[in-house]
Design goal:
The protein is mainly beta and about 180 residues long. The chain is built from 1 helix and 10 strands. The strands form 2 sheets. It has a 5-stranded antiparallel beta sheet with strand order 4-5-1-7-8, with no helix packed on it.
């Protein structure tokens, strides 16, 4: 696990993809974040944040959302304010899920898909989902808090065969 400077204060996850070809149903990807308690970091999420929600304390929220991709770069973004997050939370897992409206789709079916995890101008992760091309959902990042209260980032690109709702429940599992 790599710490960044004195730990993370604020990070952003950005997502991009191209719209579906003419005549096909829209391709809809979503960033999903699951927050776990410090006392049970691999148990059930305390809360999940996605395009229709935000964290109860406002420390995780969507700043941009797209249901179709636009082909103009990063069209969806989620912001994490770790410096304001309650001490009861010890782990946040971030993933991306593909809505399966209009038939099954995997990352390999989505053109120009990509994700960036950044702290300010520093890119912590850049990925194009090629390593999980057959998956319908993938985790991309794990943020954990150490004993001193410092938040750290770890790349965690893992593929799943899930729709968004079941993915939110299983994305923080210990499965490798």
């Amino acid at each position: 696990m790599s710490g960044v400077g004195g730990g993370l204060a604020k990070a952003e996850v950005r997502l991009k993809w191209d719209p579906s070809p003419f005549g096909e149903p829209p391709r809809h990807l979503d960033i999903i974040a699951a927050t776990y308690s410090a006392g049970d970091p691999y148990g059930r999420p305390v809360y999940v944040v996605h395009y229709e929600s935000r964290s109860p304390d406002g420390t995780i929220n969507m700043s941009r959302h797209s249901e179709t991709g636009m082909g103009f770069g990063f069209v969806e973004a989620m912001v994490f304010e770790f410096d304001r997050m309650s001490s009861v939370y010890g782990r946040v897992v971030v993933g991306v899920a593909i809505h399966q409206d209009g038939g099954p789709r995997a990352f390999g079916d989505i053109s120009n898909a990509g994700v960036v995890v950044a702290e300010g101008y520093r890119q912590l992760l850049v990925d194009d989902f090629a390593g999980v091309a057959d998956a319908t959902a993938a985790t991309v990042a794990e943020f954990t808090k150490d004993a001193s209260g410092t938040w750290e980032f770890r790349e965690m690109v893992r593929g799943f065969e899930s729709d968004p709702v079941p993915f939110a429940a299983e994305m923080g599992s210990l499965r490798q």
